[in-house]
Every structure is written in C-alpha cells, then in structure tokens.
Amino acid sequence: MSTHIGAPPGDIAPRVLLPGDPLRAKWIAEHFLDGASGYSTVRNMLGFTGTYRGVPVSVQGSGMGMPSASIYAHELLDQYGVHTLIRVGSAGSIQDDLQVRDVVLASASCTDSAMNRVRFNNLVDFAPVADFGLLRTAVDVAQARGTAVRVGQVLAADAFYTDRPDVFDLLTAYGVLAVEMETAALYTIAAKFRARALTVLTISDHLRSGESLSADQRERSFAQMVEIGLDTIVADA
User: Fold this and answer.
1) Is 205 a catalytic residue?
2) Which residue in 67, 119, 123, 198 has its CB near the most CB atoms, within 10 A?
3) Which of 11, 131, 205, 231 is catalytic?
4) pLDDT tens for residues 112-151?
C-alpha cells in the first residue's frame, strides 16, 4: 500500500490512464469503463479500476505539474506492477497551425525543470521520449477513428504563469508544438522502470491567438482524446 495512493495490492490494473484532474478521472471511469470502482481517495486524488473492451484498466488522477505526476507515476510503477501509463491532458498551442480541439501525441518532451538535471547530477541532458510502440499504435488508432493528430515535441513547463513568454517564440521556431506540465517527468520515470508511457493531449488554449475552450467544449473534445488513449492502451492485450 503506497503512501500517496494507498490502494491494496491487486486493486490497480497493469494499464493506467493518467488525467491530471481527479474529477476527470472520475468522469472517465463513469463514462468509459465497465464495472468501475474506486480504489483511492487519498488527498482526493481519485483512482478507479474497471474494464474497457474486456481489458482491466485503471484511471488515476495525477495532479498538476511534474512533482505531483512523478509521485503517482513512481508509485504505480514501483509498487503496483503497472507497465503502461498514458497521460490524457490539456495543452496550450504555440504553433499557428495547431488549433484548439486538435489532438497531439507527444513523441518527446523538452522541459525547463531542473528535476532531470538533479537526477543525472548535471552530467547529461536526458531526453525524455515516448514509448515508440504506444506512439505508433496511437497513430494507427487515431487514423482508424478518422481523427487527425499531430506528432511532435511538447514543453513540460514548471510554471503555469510565466514571466518569459519569449521562450515560447524560440521553441516555436524549433518546432515544439505545445506547452503542458507533466510529460518530461512521466517519460523519465517510465524509462527508469523500463515501462511504457505516452502522452495524448487536447489543445484547450492557443497561447498566441488567445482562443480557449469553455468547460462544456473541453468535455466534448476530451472524449475524443480519452477514446484514443483507451483504444491504444488495450491494443496489445
């Protein structure tokens, strides 16, 4: 029983969807999983296990930012026998041709966080990347569903409100697609445990045009992302 999840062994499936918002975890469990039941309410970071297309799947809230995401990814992989994590979340576009509601598959993650610099003793800049098998499957799943996706790098930012928006201009010039707050940590922790990880994102805000989705629009748009994540996570079961 881990410190921050607190579930008994066996209550969590080997495949886990990771939304940041615990209420989104509840929504996913209620709308997409069969026979879902809760296994954790610790710190109100809700977790549920059910089945999707007959395959056991859990959905676990992971909080906001890399410190929080790292805790949940670590405990799931280290103490519950999880082998596959798919983050489903929102992001802000920094590319003019990447619009709100678009879906992004993060092949790799830049970061302005010092977490990996500390982890690797400032000896190397570790490159956090997605599991290629999951990424390839997600592309195939999206195509089969008729959903256009963009594949590329994202920025996992330490701060939601930044005093240096000019940094986004530099990242845009180098092809980085969007800004979120967790993927670099997720991919790093997965690499440590030789596990599989992928981030699937819905563009909820455009950081250049100022366009954003309302709460209702987010729910409808996020359903598409969740379905891609679920179809991907059970594809090899």
Assistant:
1) yes
2) 198
3) 205
4) 999 999 999 999 999 999 999 999 999 999 999 999 999 9
